[in-house]
């Protein structure tokens, strides 16, 4: 397994900027607002000739455990326990603070190899300011400017020296594993319980959670194995709010991260607060997932706190039937992420939906269904002219896509296209899976001749 290199420091010293620089791509959200990073973020990166698991953490702050800052610190401490090397970042432009000194003492007691990085050391006074960090007792500072890419090459060399020789292959297939992970996104409104669900699936406090809405601002990627032993790449996203509420630049970036997660995913878990029910914003998210061609499973969370369960479930079914026809039959798993009740049914539902999303139908079987569907309900005439549909093929899955060929097929009304989609879904048992129907007509080349 690649060794873990963890970036630590108090808020707003440039940790995420350095993380993006070392990862060689923009992964973490970067903003001048302190505390943007609240959960640790991981990526495989090449640093100093070593493949490492690079970890960006929340800012270290002295705070009670039951506060957001306290939970952020607990997450950073968990990352530290798994670290092979720590990069401790200070902001020399701001000067050393009591927090910097306190955390330096804490790191010395942790008995881990530490590289002291004096960030924002660009310009004439940068190197001189970096010298002040000797008093932290963490060895020679490495003066850099993560934003301007100054001194980062020296940091690469220091990481290589600190890690020493790369570990020998232990025979376990890590990078050459032929089993590709299922890409799974967790989406939903703020405070629906997405991060609590992720923690429950992983069996650890991987994400910072609490009653405060909007705790997760970035999209956090985690790989794990579910009960079937299959690999899953799980992405927990910042909650999406109504457009009128997206006022701050930071929240706009969070929404962009959520949309990006939808594009990267294969299956989407839409977390719905069972106490509030499914509203227009939940439907909007589901429609976005369908538009991107992703399979959907609904996690009806906080089910243990619902008093009238029959009424809550009936209301959900009514909303889905009336407003989400394009994902007819979408699987719904009632659960409590907090207590773990019902959680054992979630990943089997995800795996089953994923299998349907990948399912291919043979041309012969497809056309037997197609002929029966046309016999049961022939296509209507368009502008008094007959539409003759000839045959259908399935050019691709992921999501299932049907191409229908025939004279003036492209002129078929939307109602008939929906009929074919629903008939296909029912015949081949594909609930909750987007289905694409492409109409390919044949035109008379002389029809428009003068």
Automatic annotation (TrEMBL):
SUPFAM superfamilies associated with the record = P-loop containing nucleoside triphosphate hydrolases
Question: What's one Pfam family the UniProt record gives for this protein?
Answer: KH_dom-like
- Which positions fall inside the EngA-type G domain? 3-167, 182-358
Q: Which InterPro entries match?
A: AAA+_ATPase, G_ENGA, GTP-bd, GTPase_Der, KH_dom-like, KH_dom-like_a/b, P-loop_NTPase, Small_GTP-bd
UniProt-listed PROSITE patterns: G_ENGA
Entry binding sites for GTP 1: 9-16, 56-60, 119-122
**Residues binding GTP 2:** 188-195, 236-240, 301-304
Q: Which GO terms describe its molecular function?
A: hydrolase activity
Keyword Repeat on this protein? yes
Q: Does the keyword Hydrolase apply?
A: yes
> Would you identify the family this protein belongs to, as annotated?
Belongs to the TRAFAC class TrmE-Era-EngA-EngB-Septin-like GTPase superfamily. EngA (Der) GTPase family.
State whether it acts alone or in a complex, and with which partners, per the record. Associates with the 50S ribosomal subunit.
> What HAMAP family is this protein classified in?
GTPase_Der
Give the protein's function.
GTPase that plays an essential role in the late steps of ribosome biogenesis.
Q: What is this protein called?
A: GTPase Der
What is the scientific name of the source organism? Roseomonas alba
């Amino acid at each position: 397994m690649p060794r873990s290199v963890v970036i630590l420091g108090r808020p707003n010293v440039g940790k995420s900027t350095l993380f993006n620089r070392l990862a060689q791509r923009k992964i973490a959200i970067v903003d001048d607002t302190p505390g943007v990073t609240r959960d640790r973020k991981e990526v495989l990166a090449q640093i100093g000739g070593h493949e490492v698991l690079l970890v960006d953490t929340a800012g270290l702050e002295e705070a009670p455990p039951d506060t957001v800052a306290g939970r952020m610190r607990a997450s950073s401490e968990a990352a530290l326990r798994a670290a092979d090397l720590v990069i401790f970042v200070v902001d020399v432009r701001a000067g050393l603070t009591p927090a910097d000194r306190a955390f330096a003492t804490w790191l010395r007691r942790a008995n881990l190899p530490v590289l002291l990085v004096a960030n924002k050391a660009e310009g004439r006074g940068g190197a001189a300011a970096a010298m002040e960090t000797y008093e932290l007792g963490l060895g020679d500072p490495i003066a850099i400017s993560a934003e301007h890419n100054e001194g980062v090459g020296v940091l690469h060399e220091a990481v290589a020296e600190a890690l020493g020789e790369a570990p020998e292959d232990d025979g376990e297939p890590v990078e050459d594993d032929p089993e590709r992970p299922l890409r799974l996104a967790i989406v939903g409104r703020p405070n629906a319980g997405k991060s609590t669900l992720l923690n429950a699936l992983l069996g650890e406090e991987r994400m910072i959670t609490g009653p405060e809405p909007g705790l997760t601002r970035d999209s956090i990627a985690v790989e794990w194995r579910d009960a079937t032993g299959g690999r899953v790449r799980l992405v927990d996203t910042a909650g999406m709010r109504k457009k009128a509420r997206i006022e701050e630049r930071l929240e706009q970036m969070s929404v962009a991260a959520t949309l990006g997660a939808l594009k990267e995913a294969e299956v989407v878990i839409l977390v719905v607060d069972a106490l509030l029910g499914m509203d227009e914003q939940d439907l909007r998210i589901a429609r976005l997932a369908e538009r991107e061609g992703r399979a959907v499973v609904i996690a009806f969370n906080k089910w243990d706190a619902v008093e009238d369960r029959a009424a809550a479930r009936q209301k959900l079914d009514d909303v889905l039937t009336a407003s989400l026809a394009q994902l007819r039959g979408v699987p719904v798993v009632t659960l409590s992420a907090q207590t773990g009740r019902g959680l054992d049914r979630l990943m089997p539902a995800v795996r089953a939906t994923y299998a349907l999303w990948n399912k291919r139908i043979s041309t012969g079987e497809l056309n037997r269904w197609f002929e029966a569907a046309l016999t049961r309900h022939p296509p209507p005439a368009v502008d008094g002219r007959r539409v003759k549909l000839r045959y259908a093929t399935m050019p691709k899955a992921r999501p299932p896509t049907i191409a229908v060929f025939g004279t003036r097929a492209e002129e078929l009304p939307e109602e008939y296209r929906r009929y074919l989609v629903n008939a296909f879904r029912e015949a081949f048992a594909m609930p909750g899976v987007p289905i694409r129907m492409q109409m390919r007509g044949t035109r008379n080349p002389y029809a428009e001749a003068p």
